[in-house]
Design a protein that fits this description.
Blueprint lengths: L11 H15 L4 E3 L11 E2 L3 H5 L3 E3 L3 E4 L2 E4 L2 H19 L20 H14 L3 E5 L14 E6 L3 H10 L11 H7 L5 E4 L2 H7 L7 E4 L16 E5 L4 H21 L4 E5 L13 E5 L12 E5 L9 H8 L4 E4 L15 E3 L2 H13 L1 H16 L6 H14 L4
Parallel strand pairs: 1-3, 6-7, 7-8, 8-9, 10-11, 10-13, 11-12, 13-14, 14-15
Antiparallel strand pairs: 2-5, 4-5
Pfam families: Glyco_trans_1_4
Protein name: Glycosyltransferase subfamily 4-like N-terminal domain-containing protein
């Protein structure tokens, strides 16, 4: 993989851990091979999240030095990116933190690994003798061409080409490397199996690659125990990427001012990495940043918001809200990746005007809010987002690869 492992509680890392859980439940031991350079991003030191250690996953990280639970890069590129990141942040501070947008290093996820990194990852993967090798995102799929495994799969959180198209429709610049669908299809050539976070992505890609097996693997939802207390609040949860930044801007400029004017005692909580994108002060808004225990933000007195318009893959935050027993309010575009699985569990809005009205209704009407919360809990307990096809695939693969199979 080509991602940092520090945060496993938000963003696409939640989906990755869902795959790990499903593989382990099926009976597989899971090893994680990390890209020597891209796995560090722009911070050359990494402490993998406790959630990974709790699952007893073995981490294999070529080109790094491990000291206890900390990995330190021995490659020059992560250190170079760290220096550039620090310089950009210094300029931002000198400019008063207002005249420029808070700096963020571009994502490396849409880039194929270098030949050197590919060789290191291939050697590490082949030394493990895997039954199934899974690359994360299409850009890493070319590595599979040299990996020796009975099954070679790709975990597709997003299709980069479709994500870019979604951004351009809103007049936004894509927040990642903009690649063509033809290039992505070429990258996916070595794979036998494609695992899709999004049902709509699967439906779009399956006709293009009919020779491969396609399985929809929605986010795993595990209900959590939460307390229905605290102030009446709306909650926006997310990592920092272009789609969430657009959704946050919509909330702060078009939705929340009207809601706060009518319901001055209600609060809007901004949770997660996306909080760093909030500039200035906004009435009734609390920026919490990273929250270690998400159960403290959930319950029936909190309304989970997904006003995302620029979308691809699936909105992980919706699955998180369901786990936390929260009524969920979403733009219809934000749930497209789930097909119609969540139509009864989520309050839907077609545009920002309807979104504002629905939020006012949920915050002002306790009966409506409680009913929506019950629908969330019911969807989570009913395993609405189960993945029976993947479970059958794993059982069949294990049976075929047993010594006596």
């Amino acid at each position: 993989m080509q991602r940092r492992l520090d945060d496993a509680d938000s963003g696409s890392a939640v989906y990755l851990l869902g795959l790990v859980d499903r593989l382990m439940t099926a009976g597989f031991a899971v090893n994680i091979v990390v890209s020597p350079a891209a796995g560090f991003g722009s911070i050359p030191v990494s402490r993998p999240a406790c959630a990974i250690a709790q699952r007893a996953c073995r981490i294999v990280w070529p080109g790094s030095l491990r000291i206890g639970s900390v990995y330190i890069s021995l490659r020059w590129r992560p250190w170079q990116r760290a220096a550039l990141r620090s310089l950009a942040h210094l300029v931002w501070v000198i400019c008063g933190r207002t005249h420029l947008a808070r700096p963020a290093m571009p994502s490396l996820i849409g880039y194929t690994p270098t030949d050197k990194d590919t060789a290191k990852m291939v050697d590490a993967a082949n030394a493990l003798g895997s039954t199934i090798a899974v690359s994360e995102y299409s850009a890493l799929a070319p590595v599979l061409a040299r990996v020796e495994a009975p099954v070679r799969a790709v975990l597709l959180h997003d299709l980069f080409a479709l994500r870019a198209e979604s951004f351009r429709k809103l007049g936004l610049a894509p927040d990642h490397r903009d690649v063509s669908l033809e290039r992505e299809l070429d990258w996916l050539g070595p794979a036998d199996l494609l695992l899709f976070a999004s049902l709509s992505d699967q439906r779009a890609l399956a006709p293009c690659l009919p020779e491969k097996r396609h399985i929809w693997l929605p986010p795993r939802v595990v209900p959590k125990k939460v307390a229905a207390d605290g102030p009446l609040r709306a909650v926006f949860l997310g990592v920092r990427h272009g789609g969430n930044i657009d959704a946050l801007d919509l909330l702060l400029t078009q939705v929340w001012p009207s809601v706060h004017n009518r319901l001055p005692d209600a609060e809007l909580w901004i949770v997660g990495e996306i909080g760093a994108s909030v500039q200035g002060r906004h009435a009734g808004v609390k920026v919490l940043g990273r929250v270690d225990d998400l159960t403290t933000i959930g319950g029936s007195r909190a309304v989970g918001l997904a006003p995302n318009r620029a979308v691809s893959g699936v909105s992980i935050k919706i699955a998180t809200y369901l786990e936390l027993g929260m009524p969920v309010l979403a733009m219809r575009t934000a749930v497209e990746g789930y097909g119609h699985r969540l139509d009864e569990a989520v309050v839907l809005a077609e545009d920002e005007g309807e979104f504002t009205d629905r939020l006012m209704d949920l915050l002002s009407d306790s009966c409506q809010r409680e009913e929506a919360a019950l629908q969330s809990v019911a969807a989570a307990r009913a395993k609405t987002l189960a993945a029976p096809e993947f479970e059958l695939f794993c059982a069949d693969l294990i049976a075929k690869t047993r010594p006596d199979g």
